[in-house]
Amino acid sequence: MANLRDIRRRIKSVKNTAQITRAMQLVAAAKMKKAQDQAVAGRDYANQLNQVLVNLKENVEEESHPLLQTREGHRELMLVVSTDKGLCGALNTNLFKKVRSESGSETHYVTVGRKLRTILSKLNKEMLADFEVKDPVPFSEARPISRFLTKQFLDGHYDKISIAFNNFVTVMNQEPTIIQLLPLSSEKVGEKQEYEGVGTGVEETDKAKAMSKDYLFEPSPLQVLDTLLPLYINFQVYQTLVEARASEHSARMVAMKAATDNAKKFIKELTLEYNKARQAAITSELLEITTAMKAME
Fold first, then answer.
1. Per-residue pLDDT tens for 129-164?
2. Alpha carbon 140 to chain centroid distance?
3. Which of 90, 117, 130, 137 has the most crowded CB, counting CB atoms within 10 A?
4. Which residues are the active-site residues?
C-alpha cells in the first residue's frame, strides 16, 4: 500500500504542475498577441520612413553626416536583448551562442534583460549599462537606449554599434540575429531589415527611388537628415525590442505547451502503473484469503 500511496502523491504532484504550466501557456499566448500587434502596427510607418530616407541618401554624401561615417577601428558596442525570466526553452542560450561567436575581444555590452546580463557578468565581460523595459514595450523607453548608443558612437568611444536579439519569424521559430545599427550605411537605408516584415524589400526601394522627384526638402536634405536619422535609429531599437519580446512570449508558450503535454502523458503512465499495482495488491489479498480458507477446511 505504501507503493500505491507514493504513486498517488506523484500523480497529484504532476497534475498540479500541469495546471501551472497550462496557466503560463495561456498567459504567454495573450502577451505574444500584444507583442505581435505592436510589431505589425509599426511596419507601415517603417516603410514610409525608409522611402523618405532613400530619397535623402541620394541628395547627400555618405561622409557628410557623422552617423554615416565608416571607421577603421574594431571597437564595438553591442546591445544584447534577452529575457528577464526563464522557462522559454533555449531562447537565451541560442542568442548567447550567437553573441559569443560573432563578438570580438574589443566588444563591450549594453544589456536589456536579466538572463544574458547575468551570464556576461559571470564571464567578466565589459558592460557599460543595463536597461529595463516594460511589457508591452512602450515606444518612449527605446529613446534613452538609442540616445545612449548614439552618444557612445558620436563621442568616438566605439567604431561600430550593433544589436543582438531574437528575431520573431513564426510562433515555432525564433532566430538569434545580430544587426549593425551604426554607422548607418547609406546603401543599406531603405532596404529590407533583418527582422521579419519590417522595412522595405527591393521592390519598395525601387518604388521609393522612382518617387524621388515628388519630395522637396526644406531647409536642406542634410538638415532633414539630422532630424530623421535619430528617429530612424530610435525606431530600429524599438522594433528589435518588440521582436525580442514577441520571441520571448512565443518561445515560452511553446515550452509551456510541451511541458503540459508531457505532464499529461506522464499522468497517464502513472495512472496505468497505479492501476497495475492496485490490481496486483487485490490479487494478492484474494490469494491470501483463498489460502486461509483452504487451510481451515
1. 999 999 888 989 999 999 999 999 999 999 999 999
2. 19
3. 137
4. 88
In a domain? residue 119: yes
- C-alpha cell of 130? 543595463
Q: What is the pLDDT of residues 31-58, one digit of tens each?
A: 988 888 887 777 677 777 777 777 776 6
Strand ranges in the chain using DSSP code E only, listed in sequence order? 76-81, 107-112, 127-131, 160-168, 174-182
CA–CA separation, 73 vs 140, rounded Å? Answer: 32
- Sign, CA torsion 136/141/146/149: negative
CA distance 136 to 279: 53
First to last CA, the chain: 30
Tell whether 216 is covered by a domain. yes
Taking a C-beta distance cutoff of 8 angstroms, is the pair 32, 250 a contact?
yes
H helix or E strand, kind and range, residue 273? helix 221-296
Contact 171, 250 (CB under 8 A): yes
Q: Which helix (H) or strand (E) holds 49?
A: helix 43-57
- The answer to whether position 249 is within a domain reads yes
Do the beta carbons of residue 142 and residue 154 sit within 8 Å?
Answer: no
Residue 150, SS3?
Answer: helix
Range of the domain at 228: 28-253
What SS3 class is residue 163?
strand
**Which residue carries 541628395 as its cell?**
59
A 10 A CB-CB count for 74 gives: 12
pTM of structure? 0.82
**Grid cell at residue 79:** 546591445
> Rounded to an integer, what distance in angstroms lies between the CA atom of residue 178 and that of residue 80?
9
Phi-psi region of 124 (alpha: psi -120 to 50; beta: other; left: phi over 0): left
Query: Does 171 fall in a domain?
Result: yes
What is the pLDDT of the chain when averaged over all its residues?
A: 84
